Amino acid sequence: MTTTPIRPAPEVRHDALAGADSHVRLRRLAPRQLGALGLGIGPLVALVVWQVASSTGLLPEQQLASPLTAVTTGWEMLTTGELLPHVAASARRAYLGLGIGVALGLGLALLSGLTRSGEAAVDSLVQIKRAIPTLALIPLAILWLGIGETMKVAVIATAVLVPIYLNTHAGLRSIDQRYVELAQTTDVGRAEFIRRIALPGSLPGFLTGLRLAVTMCWTSLVVLEQINATEGIGYVMNRARDFGQTDVIVVGLVIYAVLGLASDALVRVVQGRALSYRKGMGS
């Protein structure tokens, strides 16, 4: 009679189980990014609820126009040629102020971050400006610059300057000291040091500040375009308020949102390409 030998049960490796459990924990702690479709669920639900509330009379048109009414009004304004000149005027103000503010903020950050005398002269003043809301400067700006385009662009530039300066200055201060010592050892000139070490080292901070600056640019413009403006999205919304046209006001809000999100998306694309060497969960 032949007997079959009893084989021992396979040994369970606890380290493998621990590794698998750790992997599951990591996946739970660091979920994947949703993507464009996933991020659009919240706004889509809000639009559906808004439209249902308007259609059932829970939200009267006099208080807030429905999404379908706003879309119809926006299309009519676009096809008649009424909308685009105002969009162009708003974009011109916003991007002109943004460009001036970015240039000033970057220049002051380099001056303050690379020289002790520059930091003594600039940093405290920018910190004081940081504590003062930009819109609180509007009355003084009107007294100095009038109520025309110069005042609006200047206030936007002042709002943009602060996040650019703060984040670029922080980026300069966080450059690895070893690179600075290496530059000193190899007798690198000032211009070469700025071009090859200071600017690349401060790039992450600058791009973060640029995203904040774009947001500040458009939020400032919303208020400024309601001060003695004869063109622009804010002017259209202000006029619509006088006539109770909530659909036009909604169209203006949507345009502000689209322009702001498009500007931020463009900066994020540049940021992703410029900092492609960095690994992370995403911004």
Q: Provide the number of structural domains.
A: 1
Total DSSP E strands: 0
What is the percent of helical residues? over 70%
**CATH hierarchy class name:** Mainly Alpha
- List the secondary-structure elements in sequence, H or E: HHHHHHHHHHHH
Describe the biggest sheet? none
Rg of Cα set:
27 Å
Structural class: mainly alpha
Q: What best-fitting shape do the alpha-carbon axes yield?
A: globular
CATH topology: MetI-like fold
**Quaternary arrangement of the chains shown?**
single chain
Strand content: under 5%
CATH superfamily: MetI-like
Q: How many DSSP helices?
A: 12
In a nutshell, what does this entry contain?
Helices cover 75% and strands 0% of the residues.
Write the layout of secondary structure elements.
Blueprint: H1 14-29, H2 35-39, H3 41-55, H4 67-79, H5 83-114, H6 116-131, H7 138-145, H8 149-173, H9 177-185, H10 190-224, H11 233-242, H12 246-274
Helix pairs in contact: 4-12, 5-6, 5-8, 5-10, 5-11, 7-8, 8-10, 10-12, 11-12
